[in-house]
Amino acid sequence: MPKGIVLTTDEQNHRRHEIFEAALDTFIEKGFVETSMREIAELAGMGKSSLYDYFGNKEDILIFVMEEALENVLNNARRINALPLSPEVRLRQIIEMHLEYIVENKKLFYLFSYEGRRMSSENQQRAQQGRYMYQDMLRGLIEQGIQQGIFREVDPLVAARMLINTIIPVVYTSRPTGAPQVMMQEILDIFMNGIQK
Amino acid sequence: MPKGIVLTTDEQNHRRHEIFEAALDTFIEKGFVETSMREIAELAGMGKSSLYDYFGNKEDILIFVMEEALENVLNNARRINALPLSPEVRLRQIIEMHLEYIVENKKLFYLFSYEGRRMSSENQQRAQQGRYMYQDMLRGLIEQGIQQGIFREVDPLVAARMLINTIIPVVYTSRPTGAPQVMMQEILDIFMNGIQK
Amino acid sequence: MPKGIVLTTDEQNHRRHEIFEAALDTFIEKGFVETSMREIAELAGMGKSSLYDYFGNKEDILIFVMEEALENVLNNARRINALPLSPEVRLRQIIEMHLEYIVENKKLFYLFSYEGRRMSSENQQRAQQGRYMYQDMLRGLIEQGIQQGIFREVDPLVAARMLINTIIPVVYTSRPTGAPQVMMQEILDIFMNGIQK
Amino acid sequence: MPKGIVLTTDEQNHRRHEIFEAALDTFIEKGFVETSMREIAELAGMGKSSLYDYFGNKEDILIFVMEEALENVLNNARRINALPLSPEVRLRQIIEMHLEYIVENKKLFYLFSYEGRRMSSENQQRAQQGRYMYQDMLRGLIEQGIQQGIFREVDPLVAARMLINTIIPVVYTSRPTGAPQVMMQEILDIFMNGIQK
DNA sequence: AATGAATGAGTCTTCATTCAT
DNA sequence: GATGAATGAAGACTCATTCAT
């Protein structure tokens, strides 16, 4: 690293990602709290205090990447939701996209499920806002299906959450019976069968 | 607290429960790792070192209660499974019992979902054994239903886990649309509808 | 103490010595086990945790200096042993050097005699290796003397150890009858007289 | 142990010995400081607090037996010293008796050499008084020998201590070349040879 | 006489963070 | 921009001793 050259915001973000990726495995293996800044610095191949040039404190390392991931899933879902397709198909596509995204960022989401609670309550609330938006989008889709007479009169929010909550376990089960995508299709079938008239 | 009197095993267990209950809220609020032994002692109204008369170390506090809870759910499920009822009815009753047990021990199970990973791998394995047994019991029920022609030919293990994984979110959602029991009935309806012929 | 400057290995070793020297008196007065890291830090004029930048743990403080001292005595003895002098003269010179070294590092050796047992067995073994080498060197000298007909046919290892074991008490007696060097001459005379023909 | 029966002083002393003997091996293996009262109690097969019925505190356990041992050696030496024998023979007999006593109470003396320093300075002084008496007795013997023209004009105190300091290593060497008694004879020969005219 | 439950003081060690260079 | 030396606060855990029974 040449000294004295000012990093652009993009370069900074790039480095931030590198740092996070370097530490991700250890975060998962030992837990976020249990991983020390010294360890993170070593994994990232930099000095302890240089971390503080990229993140204000330890928690920020967690938040930075989480915000991005949440944003990405939400945006992708919004894009799909805007397509001129039936509620049923959009629902399936969103869940498939969501699954795919988690599969691709498997470690990241694993970390969030278990270490997200380590963030300050302020940051936890922001994360929850995102989750609510997502739930509401699926709820809206189910409501549309009900109004269009495709789905039975189920509680749309309960159903939406039921569906969302099946994704994570599919990716992380220690006893998979097939590829996540295959298991997810099975679940989607049961679910769709269960809410369709 | 009397000083030199010998405690019976029962009294010891009672005290252990008291200590755990005293600390439970803080475990949940701040996390198990983030709660210090000093804090636990204060909450339990005893000296720091007296904790070690009841638990060998910090982790044991977690294990002691978890072991019990797991055992209870498993035993209850076995009892129901042995009743001369149709697979469908037994499935519903087990899930209802399970839900009820979690509702009654809401905080406890919340803690296990999020802090279970803090246990030593040895203890995590024992917990997983229990979970596997439970999953297998439900899988067996679904298989029976399939054989009896009541259920469609779904992947029984995927279906069993799908069902199990909906319980926790029902109890802990921050946006409930009704009593957990009511939400669970909705989910059971969707699920049963989804797997029935 | 400058804060962010990188210390060279030499500077580190120098600081290590300073820390040890600062704590030496207390080690002797109260014992190594009985001296706390907090105390050592205070005596060394630094923060408790800074000690761990110089020593991996408490035991390492002991080992670091011991290793050096052992090495020094052994090397000096080897140098003298290589001189073209009679066994008798070499024996005398080695013992005199040894005495001198202990006199100069009086506290250090006192500490080792009494607190060496506090080291991990692994480190104790390494120390014993050094002692054996030293014993064997003196034994060799005595054997040479016997072969050359200067000394009587004594058990050379027993004699070597007899001689070595007289040094420490000479330095540390609480009732000295003269300078250690003088007392040692007296002992060497008795010893030489005792083994000579 | 029947309750309510008052122990005589002799019975108390007997129990004290039992407690000490039970813990002796552990004292040596791990060190006195490193052995906890709980451990001692377990080894002695009694309750923690019952120890305090026999010893005022942890240190007293060490002192009690040490005083006895010192007293015994001193008395035996005095008895031999009063025999109508030549200084040379008395010297040899005392050292032989001393060696025998250490061999028979090997562990005990090993403990004192290394853990004696753990006693309060008050108790250490009492122990030193005893040692001085013993040294002076041997010094007196050597002085007699010099006056009688049997021994050369050596420093009698230095010589006495030289002799005393060879006993412990003979018993505890990790590389014995024979029975302690045999090695001691070798040393006595060298010593006598060294001081005789 | 005998016990073990209770405890406060103290142990070694770790860590996020700061700051002089 | 980058570093690692420095540190106070805190952590889990141990222990000699007391005391009610």
From TrEMBL, chains A, B, C, D:
Pfam families: TetR_C_24 (PF17932), TetR_N (PF00440)
Transmembrane segment boundaries: none
Cell inner membrane is among the record's keywords: no
InterPro entries documented for this protein: Homeodomain-like_sf, HTH-type_TetR-like_transc_reg, HTH_TetR, KstR2_TetR_C, Tet_transcr_reg_TetR-rel_C_sf
SUPFAM superfamilies: Homeodomain-like (SSF46689), Tetracyclin repressor-like, C-terminal domain (SSF48498)
GO molecular function: DNA-binding transcription factor activity; transcription cis-regulatory region binding
Tagged with keyword Transcription: yes
Residue ranges of domain HTH tetR-type in the record: 13-73
Residue ranges of the annotated DNA-binding region, renumbered to this chain: 36-55
Keyword terms of this UniProt record: DNA-binding, Transcription, Transcription regulation
Signal peptide: none
Protein known as: TetR family transcriptional regulator
